[in-house]
Design a protein that fits this description.
- The protein is an alpha+beta fold.
- It is 26% helix and 17% strand.
- It has a domain of 61 residues.
- A hairpin with an 8-residue loop joins strand 7 and strand 8.
- Helix 1 packs antiparallel against helix 2 and helix 4 packs antiparallel against helix 6.
- It is globular, with a radius of gyration of 23 Å.
- The structure holds protoporphyrin IX containing FE.
- The site of protoporphyrin IX containing FE has 26 residues, from strand 5, helix 10, strand 8 and helix 11.
């Protein structure tokens, strides 16, 4: 008998029971999980409740809950693999006295738990095995902040580019959204699975790391729009059109062999950017499109008709003005230097308004690039200098992480690159 789960890796009752017996042998979760396993086993085999049978028949086909993305490989998933519609970005501070031994154990545990959860399998010591059976393209992407290397006593392994971004004049950073020694980026199509994964990960590494900040984000429910549709941000713009293409543009996104052991790793820049939707409401449609250089209707450049048409920055209006304004976001964000490109993967946030405010919305802006200092920084500096979008957007958080190269089954993330 199988639980509703990943069809390629069905979570059989036998494997759940086996996990239970292993965990049952440990002091920590044996009792709790043992009870869960027993109840699960009874519920599914002997006493199915009417609610279970009608609401969630064990063999019912899932629309996409059973879909998985690979965990093992030369590169981690969750960067260029298809983006899950939901995001939980978890940043942690690690213990001051972490050391090499602590770092090794932390990364080993993280690999063990995320390699299972992403495949719809029950990790050891998971007390809610039913919560892992719909991975829904769950990915976990793991990266290290600058201070991790100091605290793990492995500064010699830190990539040369790993440091905080300089302060830009548009920044109004709040410490609660800055920095972090370790990041676990969970993305997928099911909030419930992500919430469980978040708790499971946080609990599993609590011995060495404590949450620093969590940023939740969304792109829209899966199935609400045709697959492959570029998301809209909360200003109503089509956001994510002009991105490097994984494969031909891999050198933009991934560290190459010249970065030694970091080859197949990347950098993750996280910027929390607040939107002032109240003042944006006062802007008419023509001005809104002028700010971006693209239409609101389908995200086409103002010089084209389709979303993916190439913008023509030289085109002039009948009275001689550039059709795409030189101060527009896409003009300022398009560098003449082909090296200054980034791979964007942004999510919306829409939190509860602060007292007296009407909204608390913006972007969890995430970008990946082989070198944040020579690719992201010049671009951000140019936008900080001039970009009409700045009138309505304010960066309030900033962090940079080194995303570890992937690993093979039997290894753990960071094992080779950090020499742990
Ligand atoms: C709340 C803040 C932001 C919003 C709402 C926003 C929105 C957009 C939109 C709607 C587009 C056009 C469609 C597309 O190609 O995706 C775009 C393009 C772009 N944005 Fe942003 N963006 C924001 C911040 C940033 C930041 C911080 C950076 C980098 C430092 C950035 C870099 C880019 C780049 C490189 C492009 C593509 C330009 C091109 O070559 O056509 N954006 N952005």
């Amino acid at each position: 008998m199988t639980l509703p789960g990943n069809q390629d890796n069905p979570v059989s009752r036998r494997s759940v029971l086996k996990a239970g017996s292993i965990v049952g042998g440990t002091v920590v979760a044996g009792g709790a999980l043992g009870g869960v396993i027993a109840a699960l086993s009874r519920g599914l085999t002997e006493h199915p409740s009417p609610a279970n049978v009608t609401a969630a028949p064990a063999e019912a086909p899932l629309a996409f809950g059973s879909e998985t993305l690979p965990f093992y490989g030369a590169r981690q998933s969750g960067v260029t693999t298809v983006a899950g519609t939901q995001l939980a970005l978890l940043a942690f501070d690690v213990d001051e006295g972490l050391g090499r031994d602590g770092a090794r154990r932390l990364l080993r545990v993280l690999t063990e738990i995320t390699s299972k959860l992403t495949q719809g399998q029950v990790p050891l010591a998971d007390t809610e095995p039913e919560m892992v059976t719909s991975p829904a393209r769950l990915t976990a992407t793991i990266g290290l902040g600058e201070r991790f290397f100091t605290r793990a006593s492995i500064v010699e392994n830190k990539p040369a580019w790993l440091r905080q971004l300089p302060a830009y004049r548009i920044d109004q950073l709040q410490d609660r959204w800055n920095g972090g020694d370790l990041v676990v980026s969970l993305s997928g199509d099911d909030d419930l699975t992500i919430a469980h994964a978040r708790r499971a990960v946080t609990r599993a590494i609590a011995r060495w790391a404590r949450p620093r900040w969590v940023q939740r984000g969304f792109q829209g429910a899966r199935g609400a729009r045709p697959d492959g549709t570029t998301m809209r941000n909360l200003m109503g713009q089509v956001d994510g059109t002009a991105n490097p293409t994984p494969g031909p543009d891999d050198q933009v996104i991934w560290c190459g062999p010249e970065q030694g052991v970091w080859a197949n790793g990347t950098s993750m820049v996280v910027r929390r950017i607040a939107m002032n939707l109240e003042t944006w409401d006062e802007v008419d449609r023509v001005a809104r499109e002028d700010v971006m250089g693209r239409t609101l209707h389908n995200g086409a450049p103002l010089t084209g008709t389709e979303e993916h048409d190439e913008p023509d920055f030289e085109a002039k209006s009948p009275i001689g003005f550039p059709v795409i304004a030189p101060y527009s976001h896409i003009r300022r964000a398009r560098s003449d230097n082909p090296h200054e490109r980034i791979y964007r993967r942004a999510y919306n946030y829409d939190d509860d308004p602060e007292p007296g405010e009407l909204s608390n919305s913006g972007l969890v802006f995430v970008s990946y690039q082989a070198d944040p200092m020579t690719q992201y920084h010049p671009l951000q500096a140019r936008l900080a200098e001039l970009d009409s979008l700045n009138e309505w957007t304010t960066p309030i958080g900033s962090a940079v992480f080194a995303v570890l190269p992937g690993c093979a089954d039997g290894e753990y993330l960071g094992e080779r690159v950090l020499g742990l």
